[in-house]
Amino acid sequence: MIAVTGVTGRLGRVVIEDLLTKVPADQLVAIVRNPEKARDLAERGVQVRHGDYDDPDSLVAAFTDADHLLFVSSPDVRPGVRTRQHMHVVDAAVRAAVGHIAYTSAIKADQGVGFLEDHAVTEHLIRETAITYTFLRNTFYTEVFVNPPSVQAAVQSGELRAADGGKPLNTATIRDLGLAASAVLTGSGHENRVYELCGPLWTYPQLADAISELSGKPVAYREIPIEEAGEMAFVFQLVRDGFFAGSTDDLPKLLGRPATGIREAVKALLAG
């Protein structure tokens, strides 16, 4: 039995949909806070179970009989909240005798950057159990940078503005990261492995060129000061610090193909 948390989120949904192409529906468990939101999965034969990261007993019941569990990290980043919720998940997995945990961590979770602390703590908690694990250290989603509002604004203004400091990024699409998780859940040889999941490196000038080519409208790249980056300032500071500058081949190995590049991401967005 394969259990997946967070199936109503974008990543979890990709995972469960791909699993449905590989595994009989009655061997899948979709764990959600509100089962009504996963009614379509129940209608397709998936076992939909209530599970709330703030309700440990609900998690034990939801994880029962799970040979493999995909533990999608909590989106609640308020101080102390995610760590507490993740403690509940790990404890429930032990109590329910889960066979294997695949956890969606974050790239460089072991390097002590402040916002990664919750992931480092969670990895430690899982390592301390007797359960085998796979840490899926996901990079930032390409969709954070390449999305309808940002691309449309660039096309309309003829300018792509970014406070990137000229540094490259190794983002990955949500779909690629979800398919990689599905591959781990249905594959073998992933016990006690750590994967740094990154896409191919790209730069903002390359993104501007891709938007220009694929939209048919000229778009020029312009670097701006970090002070003008608004709500993206935190992310762009990470870019400037070289946080996204490295890359690995872990993602393409799990996918069995090259990870989606920036041009392909723009093409898919414009086609959509």
TrEMBL record:
It holds the Pfam family NmrA. SUPFAM superfamilies: NAD(P)-binding Rossmann-fold domains. It comes from the Bacteria. Residues 2-227 form the NmrA-like domain. InterPro entries: NAD(P)-bd_dom_sf (IPR036291), NmrA-like (IPR008030), NmrA-type_oxidoreductase (IPR052718). This is NmrA family NAD(P)-binding protein. It comes from Pseudonocardia acidicola.
